[in-house]
Design goal:
Elements: E1 3-6, E2 17-20, E3 29-33, H1 38-58, E4 62-67, E5 70-76, H2 82-87, H3 97-107, H4 110-113, E6 116-120, H5 126-134, E7 137-142, H6 147-153, E8 162-166, E9 175-180, E10 183-188, H7 211-225, E11 231-236, E12 239-245, H8 250-266, H9 270-273, H10 283-294, H11 298-304, H12 320-327, E13 333-337, H13 345-352, E14 355-360, H14 367-377, E15 380-383
Parallel strand pairs: 6-7, 7-8, 13-14, 14-15
Antiparallel strand pairs: 1-2, 3-8, 4-5, 4-6, 9-10, 11-12, 11-13
Helix pairs in contact: 1-7, 3-5, 5-6, 8-13, 13-14
């Protein structure tokens, strides 16, 4: 089969729609369940590239949670501590390394991951399928699925959950093309390898990049390869913890990614972990309530009595001073940027979210000011010399 007809394109009025191999060869995928759509396949193919490269770069199983052709989260399969298990709602699960990767990818920004398309670097096992079965998701792509995993995934959406198997040996052509307004664009594929050598040009006074920081910077940069530009990614402990995508201003990317990283860490504060939820409140509603509780508008909701819908008793306000005191404990965060930082305000904002390690292309006329700001904060920064725009 060298083509697959789709229900419609990005929107229901965009017909006809299909995916196909222009050279007449076989499609490198099989749809095992469901009927994936145009955007599903965009997410699936971008996500598959991301996790394939993450595994190649780290040697660990990888997962990503995609929404609207950008990752909401990406991670490798490192074990989860008790706190992370709790904030990712998996404290009652037996987790394989691949399941740990997906729990991290989904858990970093659970609100953005709601209704995601999942990509897995390895054969989907029972433990990973069990996590996927519990979440609101559109589909999954992987190089294979165990029988137990397929049985569990078949229980989603009355058997209509989208399950795609991809040939992991498939190698795309060196040139890629797309059309815009009837005009064909052509370019060489982005085949840049994110490796240790790319991070070797450390331009700051602090030259220390521990192994864990190098892994996190690789995760950040590989994530950026498949994130709509401009983009910035914060990473820590084997996963992306904040992704700022598609902003016209670099500092707005940094602010957006930083605010998501802050929320990820604030969720781990005992004051948040101990929120008195009613027993019948579902996970998505708990995620929304936590986001409101962490946010500035919570005091307004207290006054309106809205807390009664989800909590058994009125939680105390999480004050700005308490939040700042907790965030000051977040350290050793890695940050990747898909293009150079034009101003040092990005570094100032990164510092507020515990960033210590940075990788960016360099090449700005203000590189000296950016380096000076990093030196002021004791950060280690590598110039990669390579831009990672993705459109």
């Amino acid at each position: 089969m060298n083509e697959l007809e789709l229900k419609y394109g990005c929107n229901p009025n965009q017909k006809p729609s299909r995916i196909f191999m222009a050279d007449g060869s076989e499609l490198p995928i099989k749809v095992l369940m469901g009927k994936p759509g145009y955007i599903n396949f965009l997410d699936a193919f971008n996500g598959w590239q991301l996790v394939k490269e993450l595994k190649e770069a780290t040697g660990l199983p990888a997962a990503t949670s995609f929404k609207h052709v950008s990752p909401a989260g990406a991670a490798v399969g490192l074990p989860l501590d008790e706190t992370l298990r709790k904030i990712y709602w998996v404290d009652d699960e037996e987790l394989s390394p691949l399941a740990c990767a997906y729990a991290r990818a989904r858990g970093a920004d659970r609100m953005s991951s709601f209704g995601d398309f999942i990509a897995l670097s390895d054969v989907c096992d029972k433990a990973t399928a069990q996590l996927i079965r519990r979440e609101v998701s559109d589909g999954v792509i992987a190089p294979g699925f165990t029988d137990e995993a397929l049985e569990l995934l078949g229980q989603k959406k009355k058997g209509n959950y989208n399950v795609i198997q991809i040939d992991e040996k498939y190698v795309p052509a060196e040139l890629e093309r797309k059309q815009v307004y009837g005009i064909t664009f052509e370019q060489g594929r982005q085949n840049l390898k994110i490796d240790d050598e790319l991070l070797s040009n450390i331009v700051t006074e602090n030259k220390n990049m521990p192994k864990e920081a190098v892994i996190d910077l690789k995760i950040a940069l590989i994530t950026l390869k498949y994130t709509q530009s401009n983009s910035v990614c914060f990473a820590k402990g084997g996963q992306a913890i904040g992704i700022g995508a598609g902003q016209q201003s670099r500092v707005h990317c940094t602010r957006l990614a930083g605010s998501k990283a802050d929320n990820w860490f604030l969720r781990q504060c005992p004051k948040v972990l101990e929120l008195p939820f009613k027993d019948d409140i579902k996970r998505p509603d708990r995620d929304n309530a936590i986001d409101v509780y962490i946010g500035e508008e919570y005091e307004d909701l207290l006054a309106e009595g809205a807390w009664q819908r989800v909590f058994t008793e009125k939680p105390a306000v999480f004050t700005r001073e308490e939040k700042r005191a907790w965030l000051d404990k977040m350290t050793d965060v890695a940050l990747g940027s898909d293009a150079f930082f034009p101003f040092s305000d990005n570094i100032d904002r990164a510092k507020k979210s515990g960033v210590k390690y940075i990788a960016q292309p360099g090449g700005s006329v203000r590189d000296d000011l950016v380096i000076e700001s990093c030196n002021k904060y004791g950060m280690a920064m590598a110039f990669t010399g390579i831009r990672l725009f993705h459109h």
